[in-house]
Specification:
mainly beta; 6-stranded antiparallel β-sheet; 0% helix
Length: 128
Amino acid sequence: MDFNIIANLAPPEAALRPYIVAGPGMYHREVEITEYIGSGVICDPYYYICGTYPVTDVIGSRGGWDFGFNIGGGVGFGIGESAEFYVETRYHYVAGPEIEPETAAGAAAGTGGSTTGTYFPLTFGFRF
């Protein structure tokens, strides 16, 4: 969920319209860690075909909402009077909490880490 300001670098009626975009947002992320347990067999009674598939178990999951921001730019190519094809990219930064390792008594200490994330999506689309 982002709230962005778009600044056009060319008049709206131009055939080629570069722009920049930036703003804050809230990002929801979910992560599941699974473990392979074994293989199962499933048979289709209609086609008389059997096969194996992996069986997994969720051993940990985390998720939640975190604050972040994005900044980027793009270019729109005019199509007709009111439509355009656009290409844009943005840098997204999502601030996340630090993870402290959980260890059992007598076990070796695990490693912690940060859940802060960044990514650069490339978007193609049409606007009307």
